[in-house]
Structures are given as C-alpha cells and as structure tokens.
Write a structure and sequence with these properties.
2 copies of one chain form a homodimer.
Chain A (H helix, E strand, L loop, with lengths): L4 H8 L3 H8 L7 H14 L5 H8 L4 E6 L4 H17 L3 E6 L4 H13 L4 E5 L5 H10 L3 E4 L10 E4 L1 H14 L5 E5 L8 H14 L9 E3 L5 H14 L5 E4 L2 H13 L9 E6 L2 H5 L5 E4 L2 H18 L6 E3 L2 E3 L14
Parallel strand pairs in A: 1-2, 1-3, 3-4, 4-5, 5-11, 6-7, 6-8, 8-9, 9-10
Antiparallel strand pairs in A: 10-12
The structure holds a DNA duplex (30 and 30 nucleotides).
Chain lengths: ~350, ~350
DNA sequence: TTGACTTAGTTAAACGTTTACGTAAGTAAT
DNA sequence: ATTACTTACGTAAACGTTTAACTAAGTCAA
C-alpha cells in the first residue's frame, strides 16, 4: 500500500531520476512527461519519504524545542508561536519537556542530535557550558527564548525584564503609591526574577522612594503557592503597603488571595500588578493589571531567527520585544487624576 | 566533526557490521572487541544517525500529536503526559496545532505521513472520514484523546462526560440545591458539551427536579467569554437560580465574574461548580470546586496505548478514566448537614 | 556534412545504517 | 583425521531518495 518513487517511475515509464526532478522542480523533462508523472503520483497517492530525503539532503525540516515545566498558558503561547512559523516554512517541531533537569536536557539534546534536527530553541533555561558545547558540536543554529547568555554568542529573544519591572513599578508610583512591595521568584534566577526586582528598585530610586528590604520578598518560583507565601510574609513585615508588584501573574493571584484572607480589598485597600498577562489575568477577580509579554510573537520571532540562521549560516542579532501594561482593575489610583 | 559508523569501524579496525551489532546488542563479537569499539565510540563522540536507522528499520521513534487550539493548561497537561511516556520508551513527539481547521489537519497528516511517524494521537477533535481513511492508509496506530468515534474502530481515552455532568449536578443537589442552571459549550459539540448537559439533565430527573430549558444555555465554546455571555442570559432568564454547573472552568470563572457584576456573592448567593480542574481553578476567588479530569494521566495512557498497538498490531481497548470532584469554596451547602 | 549546443532523459553512486549470507578459525565428537 | 558445530567476524545488498555524470536525439549555424 505504501508506494515508492520506483513504483511511480515504473508506472510512468521513466527513470526515478526524472520523477525526482519533477518532484523537486529542477528541469530536464518535457511538459508531457511531467503531466504524466504527476498523474501517476496522484493515482498512487504517492508521498515522498521524508526520511530518505533527510538522509541524503542532510536536512530534516524538524526543529527541537526544549521546554522546562512552565505554567500551562505560558508554554502553550510560546509553543504555538513557534509552531506556527515552523509550519509555515514546512517544518515540524519536536517538543521536549525538560522539567529543568540537566540530565533530561542532555538526554534530549542527544536524541535531537541523533534525529538530526535542523535547529534548536531553548526556552527559559540557563545555557550551561555543557548544553552550549554540545549544540555547538552539532553545528546547527540555536536560539534562546525568554533567556539569554552573556558567556556565549547565542541569539535570544526576550523582553527586557528589568525594564518591565521598572514600568510596572512606575505605573504604581504614577498612581500615587509610594509604599510598594515586591514579590518575585527565586533570588538565584538572575535572568528573570532578579532583573524584575532590579527594575523595581530602579523605579523607586528614580522617584525618590527609599528601597526597603523589608518590602521585598523572593520565593522559590513564580507560582501561585509562592505568591501566597510571599504575600503572607509581606503582610507581616510591612502591613502598611498600599501596592505590590508581583513578578508573575500567578504570584499576583496568590497575593490577592491572601489579601482577601487578611480582609483587605483589592484594589481599594491594596493594589496588585502582575507580570506576563496570561489568560488567567483577565479571568481573575478583580481582573489583573499586568505587564504583557507578547509570548506568541516571541515564539514566532524565535523560530524566524532560527530559520534565518539556517539560511545565512550567520548569527542573527538578538531581539528585545516590547512589553506593555495591560490595565485592568487590580490597581487603584490614590490620586484624583493621574500624573502625566 | 560529525562521525559515522564507518569512522568508528575504521578506527577500531573492525567492519561496520560489527559496530552495528554491538550498538544493537545482537551477538557475534567478543568481549574484547566490544570494549574496544565502545571506547572508540566514546572517543569520537559518535551518535548513530536516527535518520539512516529510520530508513532501514521503518521505524522513526516519533509520534505525531494533533492539538486543536485548546486553552493553555488543558493542552499542556495532556501533552506533558504524552510526552513523558513517549520519552520513556525512547521516542519523541511532534506537535501540530491544527486550530480545529480541517485543511490544516490534512496538511499535518501528510507531513506526518512523509516523516513516517510511528503513531498518531488526535486530541479532542472529531475523527472525520477523511482523517480516518488517511491514517488508515498510513497503517500506523492512532488513538483519540478526549474524544471518541462510533463510526470507526479507533481506541480512545477520555472521561465519561455524561457521568461527569451527572456527578457535578448531583453534587449540587446533594448540597441542597434544586434550582440549578447549566452553562455549556456548543450545542454542536455532541462529544463533550452535549454529553455534559445530558448528565446534568439525567441527574435532575433522577432527583425529581423538572428540567427547565430556561435554566440551560449553550455557547460557542468553553471559554471565559462564553461563560460571561452564558451567565448573563441565565441571570435574565432565571434569576432565582441558587447554583450553576459550568461545563468548563473557564465558563465557571466567566459566570462568577458576572455574578459579581450582579452583586451576587459566590457561593453565598449562588454556587458554581466547574469542570476540568485546571490550575486556574485553585487560583480563582473563591477557589473553584470542579470536576477533575486526570489530564496528565490521560495523555500518558493514550501514549501507552499507542505503543501497545505498535507492539501487538492489534486494537487496544479504549479507556474511560475516572473523574472526581475536587471540593473547594465555590459551592455553598443549603443544608445543615449533607445528605449521604 | 560537420561540429557545437540543447533537450530529455538514464545510470549509478551516495547518504548512514541494518542484516542476510559467507567464511575462516577454533573446538568437540567420532 | 575427519566431520560437524560454534564463534567471531567481514561483505555486500537493501532502505528511498538526490544528483553528478553520461548519452542519444534533435536543432542550428557555417
């Protein structure tokens, strides 16, 4: 039931070379034979074997994406952006859930190597020496998504998290808040969590507000549970906060839920701004004001860069995507009219 | 920099056949040569070319997963279940976001065909004649996930949505509610939306509550926006409801948000139960009581079945996964003590 | 009429594996 | 000493393509 190029050739009374050329739109055949061959292909329902093609062309039209365990929407949006442009150029994506584990990551890299993927996208993970040199030895392009590396010359696409943190905090300040808390992810996560915190501090300083360590809390991760923990300690340590910048939407929702527990109304008693603008931001109560990362576009961009590098064999410049505040109902203005 | 089996053979002073046999753990070589070859492999950093292997073995260790555009968490959980067991058996998954489009789906099927994947998982989509016969002609196993087909003998894994709807509704009844609304997805979605509604009706009838069409609303989809729409019309048509069964968590959150708009407290004035038990259920305010589908397990099961079928060449029995109510805070009991 | 080009093909090697088959050396039994 | 088996390999075909190199026929100009 499965036909090969030979079957087509035999049935059309030509050589397999001719069939191949027709398939690949090279020249060396008449209109007539082309039509004939095409008809036979149609009749047989023949589809070329991508494996055989891959073997000889050294190109598999497949890219690998390494995804650590991210919260649902986040990963899906990035992935669907990647998948979309990958599909447009006629390739496919192999997903690998690394769960932040180094061993798993290396195992996946090996599989991707054996499968001879044309490129690799690393999502949101630190590029270790081990990973880098392995991919380097595969000599295929890679790009980092929601991450970056200063050690290695690997192009990345992300938003400027420091700037994002700054914008979020400034937004709160512009709304009249001066007593602003911070809930962020891990203090070890220099790439993201710490960056956002830096932006927070910078905004305070630029507006002559003292940075108070008591108002800042770091957690294990960016998750809801962390938000709960974080907000609890914040409520103890700094009960007179009027606003908090949560470095992820999940953190923000966690914070809001403990605010309720402490009988504080959001946003009347305490304002909360999130980060990521995931789908759940609009579904929360109150709807969450959040710093939006264009995740879908970022995924798409990363894929584009990958294919660009395949073409050009050169390193594509990195890309900082714009962020944006999506105003909803979780921030209360302490002024009659906003500044600016 | 990229070595082949020939390089290994040459360097170890054996034939490629021997290397191959060692790699595949067949016999026909001495302990000594094995050690030698293994050492050379290590030295060269050789990894077998899966493409070449695929060509001759007619097995690619790759499965395709067709995902319609599902809300983030839903898709991610299924996918990660699938990916996990796929990885365990040494295969990879190619994801295809079909966005519910027939043309795109067919295009993907062709790509998967050309890439000679070993199996296909269809998520949550109706299996049309076209899809079915195409995959049939590829003669590889397929399984349906969160879906089923009565036309074709294709194994599936899903929960019994009718039963799920029944359980949810019964839960409300057991909590003393008799005036219960329904917000579901599309009326055309016979596989899921309608099933849950049927379960709802059955539970009412079994408890001697009249089914009232006014208390039921169908929407375009299972999304937040649909929940808002649905709840609005429900509030108009049936203002004296004390509880509503929303056929998805997003619908439930939409419903809750309009409840707030109408100044109804949840759950004191109106109880809401959701379906899916996505991550956002625990993060909502109030935390959402929901019918849980073991999505991760379902994905894993589907993948297991796929590999089982590859082995056995037979059709594996379908699998109905258990559902379960996860009690949180969005349902209020109207009785002093619960029945049962 | 010849030579130079062009057109429309064919043949066969190559891609990197696996594996059926062949074989030479060693061992065991008679 | 011969036969029969076993062990430890090597040889070469095969998987389904692409493509470089070749060829035969036709066209055109001088």
């Amino acid at each position: 039931m499965k036909h090969t190029i030979k079957d087509v050739a035999k049935r059309a009374n030509v050589s397999i070379a001719t069939v191949s050329r027709i398939l690949n739109e090279k020249d060396g055949y008449s209109e007539d034979t082309k039509e004939m061959v095409l008809r036979v292909i149609e009749e047989l329902g023949y589809h070329p074997n991508a494996i055989a093609r891959g073997l000889i062309n050294n190109k598999t039209h497949t890219v690998g994406v390494l995804v650590p365990s991210l919260t649902g929407t986040f990963a899906t949006e990035l992935l669907s952006g990647i998948e979309q442009v990958t599909h447009e150029v006629g390739s496919n994506v192999i997903v690998c859930y690394t769960e932040f584990q180094g061993v798993k990551t290396m195992k996946y890299l090996q599989m991707l190597n054996e499968k001879r993927v044309d490129g690799i996208i690393f999502i949101s993970a630190e590029l270790t020496e081990e990973y880098y040199s392995y991919v380097e030895s595969m000599s295929i392009p890679m790009v980092l998504l929601c991450s970056e590396s200063d050690k290695y010359q690997v192009p990345y696409v992300r938003v400027n998290d420091r700037a994002g943190g700054y914008t979020a905090t400034k937004y709160l300040i512009d709304n009249g808040h001066r007593n602003i808390g911070l809930i962020s992810g891990s203090e070890d996560d220099v790439l993201t969590s710490v960056q956002r915190a830096e932006g927070y501090k910078a905004a305070l300083i630029d507006h002559n507000i003292a940075v108070n360590e008591n108002n800042m809390v770091f957690n294990d991760d960016f998750l809801f549970e962390d938000g709960i923990q974080g907000m609890k300690t914040l409520m103890e340590r700094a009960p007179d906060l009027t606003a908090v910048f949560a470095a992820s939407d999940e953190l923000a929702l966690g914070a809001i839920s403990v605010a309720y527990q402490y009988n504080k109304r959001v946003p009347e008693d305490i304002s909360v701004i999130g980060y990521d603008n995931l789908r759940l931001a609009e579904m929360s109560h109150p709807p969450l004001t959040s710093v939006s990362q264009p995740l879908n576009d970022m995924g798409a961009k990363a894929a584009q860069m990958l294919f660009e590098m395949q073409e050009s064999k050169m390193i594509t410049p990195s890309c900082i995507m714009p962020h944006q505040i999506i105003e909803r109902k979780s921030v209360h203005s302490l002024k009659d009219f906003k500044k600016k």
